[in-house]
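agent> fetching stored inputs for the protoporphyrin IX containing FE docking request
agent> found them:
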Amino acid sequence: MAQKFLYAWLPYLSILVFFVGSYFQHKSHVFRLTPERRRELREHLDWEVVPLKYGFLVILFGHIIALMIPSAVLSFNGDPLRMVLLEVTGLVFGLGFLTALLSIFFRRWFNPRVRTVANSMDMIMEILLISQVMLGCWTAAVYRWGSSWGASNVSPYLWSILKFQPHLDSVQVLPHVMQLHIITGFIILIVFPFTRFWPQLLLIVFGKSSGPSR
Ligand code: HEM
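agent> prediction call returned; pasting C-alpha cells
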C-alpha cells in the first residue's frame, strides 16, 4: 500500500499542488520580491550565483532530456567515451550546485543578518534541495551508469505516470538511494509553491550571472 501511495498517488498530488500553488502564488503577490529584498538577495549571494545558475540549468535539462527522450540518451551512450563524458558532466555540475547550496545555507545559518532574508519554509526547502542533490550525486557516483539505467528503468515509470497508467515495477527494484531521490523530488514539488524560491530562482537563473552588484 505504501508503494502504491509513494509511486502512484504522490506524483499526481505533487504535480497538482505545484501548478495550482504556483498559480495562486503568482496571483497573490505575497512572495513577490521587493526592490529592497532583491538588493538583499544580491548582497547575500557571491560566487555561488554561477554554479547555482548553470548547475540548475544543466540538472533540469539533463533530467528532462534523459527522462523524456530516453532513446536519444541510450543511443548517445552507445559510445562508452560519450557516456562517461555525459556522466562526468552531470556529476560535476551536480557537485557545483551542491557546493553553492551548502555555502548559502551555512552563510545564512551563521550570519543572523542574512538569516532575516529567509523564512522557515525557505529553510525547509533548502534542506530538502540539499538532500536531493546529495542523493542524486550519490546515485550518479555509486550506481553507474545512471543516465543509461535511468533511461531504461525510470523513464518508462514517468511516462506511465503521464499516461495515467502508473507502472511501479521498474522503480520498486531501484536502489533505495534512487527511490528516496524520486520521492524527495515529488515532495520538493509540493513544498515549492509555499516558499519564495520562484522569485529567487528567476532572479538567479535569469538575472545577472556575474556575481554580486556591489
Ligand atoms: C527537485 C528535483 C531533483 C533534483 C534537484 C535532482 C538532482 C539530481 C542531481 C544533482 C543528480 C546527480 C547529477 C547527475 O548525474 O545528473 C541527479 C541524478 C539523477 N536523478 Fe535527479 N533530481 C531531481 C529529481 C529527480 C526525479 C524526480 C527523478 C526521477 C523520477 C530523478 C532521476 C535521477 C537519476 C536517474 C539520476 C542519475 C543520473 C546519472 O547517474 O547520470 N531525479 N539528480
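agent> quick read of the result: The longest helix spans residues 80-110.
agent> awaiting further instructions
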